[in-house]
Amino acid sequence: MKSKVTVDSEGTVTGNTYDKYGSTNPVVRRLMAKFHRDLDACYEIAAPTSILDIGCGEGVLTHEWAGRLGIGGRIVGTDLDDPLLHAQWEKRRAPNLEYRVMKGERLDFADNEFDTATAIEVLEHVTDPEMVLSEMSRCATRWLLVSVPREPLWQMTNLARGAYWSDLGNTPGHINHWSSRSFRRLLSRYGKVVELRHPFPWIMAVVQLGD
């Protein structure tokens, strides 16, 4: 799949669409293998019983987690109203899985409705990441599991491969940028950061909610 910028019905730039999970590029495959190993390790720390997956995209991880949760574990994936996403959701169904069109800043769920809330490669795209994290924390009882590009490594990597020179290596749709330190500082406002991993070129964290 080629990269392209997508825009939702309200004019929100949803970012650069690239099938990183299905890529045949050997470099991308190695990077994604490491990303997935670290994500699995973070998943095991949280050991979720139910999941709210914000910005689930095509539902690749959401569908995988539905299988890991089993029939007794509920999972809901949310994203913007995009016909291309809807078509992918139809391909990835499970008895315990539901998809909803919804923005992370306005989650139509009850307080503490889920055990864990996740946002994998999402917060760099949203205009108000603090509001999204607040809503995730409201809807989850125990854990947040999140990942974002690690800066400035991400932009430097883009420049090194000759991408997005006119934007100094910034991927289209990335409007927020964090280093490992600044991301930890942000997440610490919502709970205790119990795990922080750095699969190149990302940051991945598990946050324990509560007092």
UniProtKB/TrEMBL annotation:
Gene Ontology molecular functions: S-adenosylmethionine-dependent methyltransferase activity
Bilayer-crossing regions: none
Pfam families hit by this protein: Methyltransf_11
Ranges where the Methyltransferase type domain occurs: 52-139
Signal peptide: none
Name of the protein in question: Unannotated protein
Organism whose genome encodes this protein: freshwater metagenome
